[in-house]
Amino acid sequence: MRRKISVAPMMDCTDRHDRFFLRLISKNVMLYSEMVATKSAIHGDRKKILSYSPEEKPLALQVGGSDKKELAEVAKIAEDMDYDEININLGCPSKKVQKNKFGACLMKEPDLVSECIDKMINSCNIPVTVKTRIGFDDTESFDYLNKFILKLKEAGCKTFILHARKAILKGLTPKQNLNIPKLNYEMVYNIKKENPNLEIIINGGIYTIDEIKKHLKLCNGVMIGRAIYQNPYFLTDIEDKIFNVKDKPTREQIAEKLLKYLEKEVKLGTKVNHIMRHTVGLYHGQAGSKKWKRYLSDNMMARDSDFQKAKHIMEIVQNNEKINQVTT
Ligand SMILES: Cc1cc2nc3c(=O)[nH]c(=O)nc-3n(C[C@H](O)[C@H](O)[C@H](O)COP(=O)(O)O)c2cc1C
Question: Taking the model in full, what pTM does it have?
Fold first, then answer.
């Protein structure tokens, strides 16, 4: 599996359209779905919730739940739908998620999680991986985390994505929980040192190529969320400096390919905004960025926005491209 660099699962962000867009920029990163609750995956509109374009692969489905039977069923569904991995969310701190007994609160229940992993592994032939925090509330100790990981290793889990920040289950919103308390990368490095045979992926607050390179010396992989969503073109730097892929696509080439996808999707009933909203960061840090954002917010939310806009989108892209060629 290619988990050297992955894009983090992000609710309301990494849907299938975003993943298609990101894949136009990077062939080498691993992509994750947003978290899908077991019950939605089993009883919901599966086509709407779980379908994806083959171009998105390699792709992992992230699931939230704590019912062994349901988790096993979703693992099998993921395999049948040709996902490359099933990942269980043990890191989300939101109240709603806690109420339904999944996410970070499951760090308190290693036995239950271990049984869930065991059932998932026995029901499918794709890798079952874990995404978790380094602790919760007053618990941020190497011993606790290491025992938790060992328990899941005994059940057969070999890959752990560690968001290097503990979850505060009471008193902080999910948004605050992404920035507070401080990151503790040492904890993740120490887990890797103690468990050299496990695949340990580090996550949290990683924004630059230098940071990625430093983490890769001490962990097996790096997972990046906001830095890529806010600045998707950062992936071209990752392709170049981490994967040694030298032919960078221009933003114009990316947009051109995305518009072909847009045309196809709009015919199937997808709203233009559902695709284009993920491109807000395409000109991040570039001349024309403000204009691009304003254009998207003025036009893409309109109810009547349809594919006729594609020509106009391309004009703005080409114009931005020209401005940047002059200014760089
Ligand atoms: C908008 C948003 C939605 C998120 N949704 C999920 C999710 O569905 N599942 C999950 O495991 N983590 C979720 N996260 C956490 C990210 O996967 C990641 O662990 C976190 O953002 C830290 O990485 P970063 O600093 O590189 O963004 C979300 C984060 C953000 C910003």
Answer: 0.95
